[in-house]
């Protein structure tokens, strides 16, 4: 058993297919099959359920994956520890909520200063990004904050004004109960602010409609489909064109803080350290 076997096992477990793992790792399929078989012989137990759609971890396989993930993560940190040099390079795996107004400026400036770093960016809602950073799937992420988590450190990026957006120039709180609420998926920071406000007012929304793309939400609001809550800066142009109208929220719900989170117990590579320093 060696690191290659563990990497193959981890990849098959993630992709659920020997052929898919072989393609990703650039191995022949028989080689992948052989390594899986050797692991099962070594531990004297099957690790997968085999079926027509591929392979799924069984109970013993899931148990083994927890250890394999830890071993390979530790090996990766060892490589960073001994092979990292003074010039940031490699890939920086980041996550972001959909609306971070400063993000383009941050990324453009960082790339200009450190052209040897490849930034991989993944969009999701705050709750999902926190989970991915905690589980080492991302080096860090831009999320709605503040974040309270024992494993995470955070760095302030921006504070933005939140507004309620509708297609009508007039608005009152009672109308919320009569109109659909247009929001991102569960775990979005703006949605959480809106939910807290409505709960305090004792209002049950008529309908909640979920969208994955903020532009779709805003276009739907402009067409009169419903209302939403987003940072004011996001809708400035549409507001100037009289496509939508912004309404103030109660002070305790009218601001959103964006923070950059990362694991405080993980080894900070030169690449991540340079990114944190650049944003400071």
TrEMBL record:
<protein>
    <submittedName>
        <fullName>HTH-type transcriptional regulator GltR</fullName>
    </submittedName>
</protein>
<keyword id="KW-0805">Transcription regulation</keyword>
<dbReference type="InterPro" id="IPR000847">
    <property type="entry name" value="LysR_HTH_N"/>
</dbReference>
<feature type="domain" description="HTH lysR-type">
    <location>
        <begin position="1"/>
        <end position="58"/>
    </location>
</feature>
<dbReference type="InterPro" id="IPR005119">
    <property type="entry name" value="LysR_subst-bd"/>
</dbReference>
<dbReference type="InterPro" id="IPR036388">
    <property type="entry name" value="WH-like_DNA-bd_sf"/>
</dbReference>
<dbReference type="Pfam" id="PF00126">
    <property type="entry name" value="HTH_1"/>
</dbReference>
<dbReference type="GO" id="GO:0000976">
    <property type="term" value="F:transcription cis-regulatory region binding"/>
</dbReference>
<dbReference type="GO" id="GO:0003700">
    <property type="term" value="F:DNA-binding transcription factor activity"/>
</dbReference>
<dbReference type="InterPro" id="IPR036390">
    <property type="entry name" value="WH_DNA-bd_sf"/>
</dbReference>
<keyword id="KW-0804">Transcription</keyword>
<dbReference type="Pfam" id="PF03466">
    <property type="entry name" value="LysR_substrate"/>
</dbReference>
<comment type="similarity">
    <text>Belongs to the LysR transcriptional regulatory family.</text>
</comment>
<keyword id="KW-0238">DNA-binding</keyword>
């Amino acid at each position: 058993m060696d690191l290659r076997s563990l990497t193959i096992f981890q990849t098959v477990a993630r992709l659920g297919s020997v052929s898919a793992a072989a393609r990703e790792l650039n191995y022949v399929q028989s080689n992948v099959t052989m390594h899986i078989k050797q692991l099962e012989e070594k531990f004297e137990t099957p690790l997968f359920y085999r079926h027509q759609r591929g392979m799924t971890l069984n109970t013993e396989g899931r148990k083994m994956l927890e250890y394999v993930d830890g071993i390979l993560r530790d090996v990766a940190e060892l490589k960073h520890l001994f092979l990292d040099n003074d010039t940031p390079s490699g890939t920086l795996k980041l996550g972001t909520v959909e609306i971070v107004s400063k993000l383009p400026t941050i990324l453009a400036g960082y790339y200009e200063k450190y052209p040897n770093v490849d930034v991989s960016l993944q969009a999701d809602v705050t709750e999902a990004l926190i989970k991915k950073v905690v589980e080492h799937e991302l080096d860090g992420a831009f999320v709605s904050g503040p974040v309270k988590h024992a494993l995470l450190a955070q760095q302030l990026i921006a504070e933005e004004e939140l507004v309620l957006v509708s297609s009508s120039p007039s608005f009152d709180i009672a109308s919320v109960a009569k109109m659909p609420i247009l929001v991102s998926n569960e775990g979005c920071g703006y949605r959480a602010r809106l939910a807290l406000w409505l709960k305090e007012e004792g209002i049950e929304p008529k309908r909640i409609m979920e969208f994955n793309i903020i532009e779709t939400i805003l276009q739907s609001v402009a067409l009169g489909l419903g209302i939403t809550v987003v940072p004011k800066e996001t809708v400035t142009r549409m507001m100037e064109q009289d496509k939508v109208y912004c309404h103030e929220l109660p002070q305790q719900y009218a601001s959103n803080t964006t923070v950059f989170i990362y694991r405080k117990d993980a080894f900070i590579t030169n690449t991540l350290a340079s990114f944190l320093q650049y944003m400071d």
